[in-house]
Amino acid sequence: MDNNMCNITKSFESEEADGTDQEKEISNVIFSGKDELELGESAENSELWINQENSVDFDDDLENINITNFFHRVDSDQIIYQKKKRKLKLVGKYVMGDLLGEGSYGKVKEMLDSEMLCRRAVKILKQKKLRRIPNGEQNVQREIKLLRKLKHKNVINLVDELYNHDKQKMYLIMEFCVGSLQGLLDSTPDKKFPHHQAHGYFLQLIDGLEYLHSMRVIHKDIKPGNLLLTLEGDLKITDLGVAETIDLFAKDDTCYIGQGSPAFQPPEIANGLESFPGFKVDIWSSGVTLYNITTGFYPFEGDNIYRLFESIGKGDYSIPDEIGEPLRNLLTGMLEKEPQNRFNLQQIRQHSWFTRRPSISSAHVPFPPLKGDTWHNMTVLPYLIDHYYDDPCDSANEAQYFTERELNESERRNVESDNGNAQSNQSSKRSSGWKKPISCISVRSLPGCKQS
């Protein structure tokens, strides 16, 4: 481009009769290499174009720009990666592993108890992040208080609590779970389970819910995302942040505050009633959960929360024709609009679909692989190996460097090898060897490479 273009904003202060100040803007000024513009001299008009007869359209200039003046091509063999050694991190007596998941309150990582050698999961909470969440600190303290006294095979167990006052972090060590019911649903093509598998999960949900109600605890947020699964297939009710405890001397289970996920709220909350029976709220949300895991849909839907609550408040829904008796009757009883007509836990336990397991009609849905690992191996082990054992490939513990091209070729060979093994042997076998991954990275500047 022959011309240099810039924007100039200049204020002109003029004294008018009323004493007000006016501002005029000079914009889109194009300077020529031969002509000079005196910025001190102001013009009466607000727009000034220099060298208009020789100027060309700016869009045409952009097409003529040589992109290589701004970006430089770098070959893959000039990008250097360094293999870094995993750093072992200890929190108390627990060895930290890889990240399992992340929610609105904090991260969840795997841990290993160095004394008991038990596999654990830790929820890492930061006080700064909790302060930005409405009622975040109160919900966490309420959950900790409840988990301390709740002990049941179908309720998540709080093993230990650790605090780091310097970093303002809180570590909640809990039972290790491989994933949530929602994650297992998402891994299926139809977003639903076979009836025999859904029946097993629903039985455990009712067992855990009956224990919570016996302890006068109302969960208020039963949904597949808050139901965790262990490697043995045990269901664990978790996330008691919005749970409410009924006073021991209260007349009934009346509640006044409705909290939880909108799609799982009952009509009494959607219609804005001031008070409602708390135990029937969990019955409703359990019915929506059963509907979801057996049909792959939700009984009530809406474009926004207002349309959703309007649909829930009316109580009109339909059950797919593929759902036959007695499951249809159970869903109808649990999703009754009026709380007094809704099934209670005793009626659910005595229902014929609950007491009799459906026949196996299709294959059991397995756990989805975690970061490509179908066996869900312990992620703490690589950190321990790096810490206590030296890699024989490392010469005198020197840092090793790899190029981008070498990494791409290695990944391509691994993919081809995996495809060949899959074709030769359909049954998956557990790999006995452990491959040390390459972490990212520090880049060395090489001669001949230009920085962009």
Automatic annotation (TrEMBL):
Transferase keyword on record: yes
CDD domains in UniProt: STKc_LKB1
Location of the protein in the cell: Cytoplasm; Nucleus
Residue span, Protein kinase domain: 94-354
EC number: 2.7.11.1
Enzyme category, top tier: transferase
Residues that, per the record, bind ATP: K123
GO MF, one annotated term: protein kinase activator activity
GO biological process: one example: glucose homeostasis
Composition bias, Polar residues: 1-11, 417-431
GO cellular component: cytoplasm; nucleus
Top-level lineage group: Eukaryota
Catalyzed reactions per annotation: L-threonyl-[protein] + ATP = O-phospho-L-threonyl-[protein] + ADP + H(+); L-seryl-[protein] + ATP = O-phospho-L-seryl-[protein] + ADP + H(+)
UniProt keyword annotations, A-Z: Apoptosis, ATP-binding, Cell cycle, Cytoplasm, DNA damage, Kinase, Magnesium, Manganese, Metal-binding, Nucleotide-binding, Nucleus, Phosphoprotein, Serine/threonine-protein kinase, Transferase
Cofactor requirement: Mn(2+); Mg(2+)
Principal subcellular localization: cytoplasm
Annotated region described as Disordered, given as residue ranges: 1-21, 410-436
Family: Belongs to the protein kinase superfamily. CAMK Ser/Thr protein kinase family. LKB1 subfamily.
Name under which the protein is recorded: Serine/threonine-protein kinase STK11
Organism annotation: Phaedon cochleariae
